[in-house]
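Progress report, Aim 2. The chain analyzed during this reporting quarter is listed below.
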Amino acid sequence: MDNETAVEIIEGLLEEALEKVDIKYIVENDGIGPYEYWGFKGVDHGTNYITIEENSFVTVKTVISNRLLEKVADYLIDQNHMLVGFIQLHEDREIKAYGKIVSYSSNIAEVTFEICWEPAEKL
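Predicted structure tokens for the chain:
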């Protein structure tokens, strides 16, 4: 099995696993609210934005040897390999998020990737 095939396998496994990831987040606002400046009164409503509270850990089953897994996982980390996930805001609204693999650990049966998430779009 060559590296390209191994990368495709891991990408497929991560895509499957990401369907189950619950990305923890809070909605914040950068506005200052009501203000008065030189007699002028106004309100700065600001912009709502998402702050992701913690990294997500994704566990997938290993289907390739640990030696090849290490090589491929290191490659994905070195290439800043981006994953796509979704943050469920409400029943009818999702926000896309990009994830970067920052570390991994493995045993005989499975591998755990730590993924650092960043929102890909504004509210």
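The two ends are 43 Å apart (CA to CA). Residues 3-119 form one domain. These observations will guide the mutagenesis work planned for the next reporting period.
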